[in-house]
């Protein structure tokens, strides 16, 4: 039981050393992730469309 108590004390001590982002940083980082996800989704969708057209025109006719 002493090991568990010591573990949580050490976890608490380490958590006080963490530098948490500000609310503004959190919003900016979240928007960056969402934006990059949309760009990647559009890019992959465009590639899928192009490959589909190539396959249907040249291989599946």
Automatic annotation (TrEMBL):
Organism listed in the record: Candidatus Yanofskybacteria bacterium RIFCSPLOWO2_01_FULL_49_17
Gene Ontology cellular component list: plasma membrane
Gene3D superfamilies: Preprotein translocase secy subunit (1.20.5.1030)
Cell compartments where the protein resides: Cell membrane; Membrane
Bilayer-spanning residue ranges: 26-51
Keyword annotations of the record: Cell membrane, Membrane, Protein transport, Translocation, Transmembrane, Transmembrane helix, Transport
Any GO BP: intracellular protein transmembrane transport
Family: Belongs to the SecE/SEC61-gamma family.
Quaternary organization: Component of the Sec protein translocase complex. Heterotrimer consisting of SecY, SecE and SecG subunits. The heterotrimers can form oligomers, although 1 heterotrimer is thought to be able to translocate proteins. Interacts with the ribosome. Interacts with SecDF, and other proteins may be involved. Interacts with SecA.
Pfam families hit by this protein: SecE (PF00584)
Name of the gene this protein is made from: secE
Protein name per Swiss-Prot or TrEMBL: Protein translocase subunit SecE
The keyword Cell membrane is annotated on this UniProt entry: yes
Keyword Metal-binding: no
NCBIfam families in the cross-refs: secE_bact
Gene Ontology MF annotations: protein transmembrane transporter activity
Membrane topology: Single-pass membrane protein
Function: Essential subunit of the Sec protein translocation channel SecYEG. Clamps together the 2 halves of SecY. May contact the channel plug during translocation.
């Amino acid at each position: 039981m002493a090991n568990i108590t010591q573990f949580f004390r050490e976890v608490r001590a380490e958590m006080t050393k963490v530098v948490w982002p500000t609310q503004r940083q959190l919003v900016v980082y979240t928007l960056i992730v969402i934006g990059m996800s949309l760009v990647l989704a559009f890019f992959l969708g465009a590639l899928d469309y192009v490959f589909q057209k190539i396959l249907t025109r040249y291989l599946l006719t």
